[in-house]
From TrEMBL:
<feature type="signal peptide">
    <location>
        <begin position="1"/>
        <end position="19"/>
    </location>
</feature>
<keyword id="KW-0732">Signal</keyword>
<protein>
    <recommendedName>
        <fullName>Carbohydrate-binding domain-containing protein</fullName>
    </recommendedName>
</protein>
Amino acid sequence: MRTFASLAVFALASATTLATNPDLCVPRCPATAQAKFTTQIPSGAACPQTNVDLCYTNTSLNLVFTALGETNFYFNPNQTTNGDIWEYEVMEAFIYKGANDPQTYFEYEVNPNNVTYNAFVYNPSRVRTAGAPFDHAFITDPFGDGFAVNTVLDKPNNKWTSRSTIPLALFNGENPRGTTWRMNFFRTIVGPDTFPNQQLCGWKNTGLASFHITPAFGIVQFV
Ligand SMILES: *[C@@H]1O[C@H](CO)[C@@H](O)[C@H](O)[C@H]1NC(C)=O
Ligand SMILES: *[C@@H]1O[C@H](CO)[C@@H](O)[C@H](O)[C@H]1NC(C)=O
Ligand SMILES: *[C@@H]1O[C@H](CO)[C@@H](O)[C@H](O)[C@H]1NC(C)=O
C-alpha cells in the first residue's frame, strides 16, 4: 500500500517537472511558437536576429527559419544536398525526441541556395570530446522521404526565409502532442571577405565555439 502510494506521487512529480519547465511549447499548426536569438556563441556578443517559427501536424514538424540583418547571402553554388554547406551560411536545427541530453540527434541545415543537409549525428560524449567518436548518418533521399523546403531571398530587406517540413516518422514521433523533445537552433554568418571565419549564432549558448554540446539543448514540449 505504502509503496504504491509513493510510486504514484513520484510519477506525478516527474510528469509535472517536464511539463512546467519547457523553453518552448510547440502547438499544432496553423498556430506557431517562435524561438528567437540575437547572440553569438560562445561570447554572447550581438548577432543579427534569427527567428525559428515551429508547429506540428500529425505527421510533420514544420519550421520557418528567418534570417534578418543578412548582408552576405553567402553559399557555394557547387554544393548540393548533404554537401558541406555548413562551411558557408546556414540556419540549423538539432532535433531529438526525448527529455535527456542525447548522444544521437538529427542535424538539419538549409542555406540561402535552398540546399539542405540532413544527417543523424552520433556524439556519444555528448560534447564532441576530442578523440571521442563523432559520426554522421545521412538521409540520402530527403524529398522522397517526405521532407520539403522552400527558400526565398529578400535582398532589399536583408532577409532570407526558409520553410521546411521534416517527417515525424524519422523520430518515431507521429501525433506528438504531449511529448518532450530537446532542440537547439543555430545560424552561421560569413562572407567572401571573412571566409572561412564564421560568426556562430545560437538559441541556447553551448559555452564553446561548437554546436554539438547536447546538455545545452533547450527543452521543447509539443502541446
Ligand atoms: C491526427 O491524429 C489524431 C489521433 O490519432 C486523429 O484523431 C486525427 O484525425 C488526425 N488528424 C488528421 C488531420 O489526420
Ligand atoms: C565550383 O566548381 C567550379 C568548376 O569545378 C570551380 O571552378 C569553382 O571554383 C567552384 N566554386 C567554388 C566556390 O568552389
Ligand atoms: C527548394 O528545393 C525544393 C526541393 O528540391 C523544391 O521543391 C523547391 O521548389 C525549391 N524552392 C526554391 C525556391 O527553389
